[in-house]
Amino acid sequence: MTTEQGVGKLRSIVLDCPDPRALADFYGQLLGAQVVSDEEDWVVLADASGRRIAFQTSPDYEPPKFPDTTGSQQIHFDVLVDDIEVAQPRALALGASLVQAETDGAFRVYRDPVGHTFCLVWLPES
Prior knowledge:
This protein is α/β, with parallel strands linked by helices. It has helices at 20-31, 84-94; strands at residues 13-17, 34-39, 42-46, 52-57, 77-80, 97-100, 107-111, 117-121. The protein has two helices and eight strands; from the N terminus they run E-H-E-E-E-E-H-E-E-E.
């Protein structure tokens, strides 16, 4: 397999939201990431491996709808957990809401405090 050099490297994933600091706090606690930049309309988190998520103010923000047969989520995070029965109550206490618990796989669907969907996923036992 040959790999081609890309045009660039991914710097950050950016989420629009009404309050960047509040949403960064939620994801910081959910993912164990730290704030590395904090401006009025732009907050950046980074985890220990350097992966970055940024949050920017969007005054006219409207959350995605899920499930939505006429549209899509556009983007969502899959967050790997060791034990869903431990992780779910912690995520809910941070402000997440459960959207779909019954799935055909090893995941559950949630909304963050402003409506972006994300999944808690776990690896099936071997």
